[in-house]
Structure formats: structure tokens, C-alpha cells
Amino acid sequence: FVICNLLSTPCHANEEVDALIDMKNMMQDPHNVLQTWDPSLVDPCTWFHITCDNNGRVSRIDLAHSGLSGTLSPRIGDLPYLQYLDLSDNQLSGPVPKVGSLSRFGHD
Fold first, then answer.
1. How many helical (H) and strand (E) elements, i.e. helices and strands, does the chain have?
2. Is pTM, for the whole model, over 0.90?
3. Rounded mean pLDDT of the chain?
4. Which residues does the UniProt record annotate as the domain Leucine-rich repeat-containing N-terminal plant-type (predicted)?
5. In order of start, what are the domains of the chain with their CATH numbers?
């Protein structure tokens, strides 16, 4: 808590960054659409394909038609404010992670 205040970085941003970087690491990205997903850029709201709500929480991920392959990280459940996720027209495989904790998912 103190560290987040000293750095003027919201604590939730670090949790969201960790989840998104794990997601990135589990996918192959031949077209570099995730190049701005950089853990040194601690505000994921500045990353391409990410939209945040008014409180700076990740609310949308739109990676449709991005040429991605691999699997979807179970850490997607660590994005509690996520409302929209579009991964259509990619080559992702494997089980769909549990999203039971995403109480806002599908609500605009």
C-alpha cells in the first residue's frame, strides 16, 4: 500500500499488469499486436487493445483478428472489472479459464 502511494501508481494496476503479462506470455504473437503490453509501463490503460473504466481498471480487451495462438491464461479471472473480451478469429486452444469472479463480465 505504501509503495503504491509513493509511486503514485494504483495498486490494482500492478495486479492487472501481472495478469495481462501472464496472458501475453501464454500466447504467440507473430504480428506484435501486444508489443505495448510491457510490464515496465505500469498503466495498462495506455496499452493497445485495452480499455479502462473511469477508475483506471481494465474493462475491455479487444484482440479480435490479431493472429494470436496459444492458450488463454487462467489469470484472466484476476481482472475483476473486465466486462468485455473479444478473442475471435485467433488460433487459441485449450480450456476456457474460470471466470466466476468476473461479476461485471458482459455488463456495459
1. 2, 6
2. no
3. 85
4. 14-53
5. 2-92 (3.80.10.10)
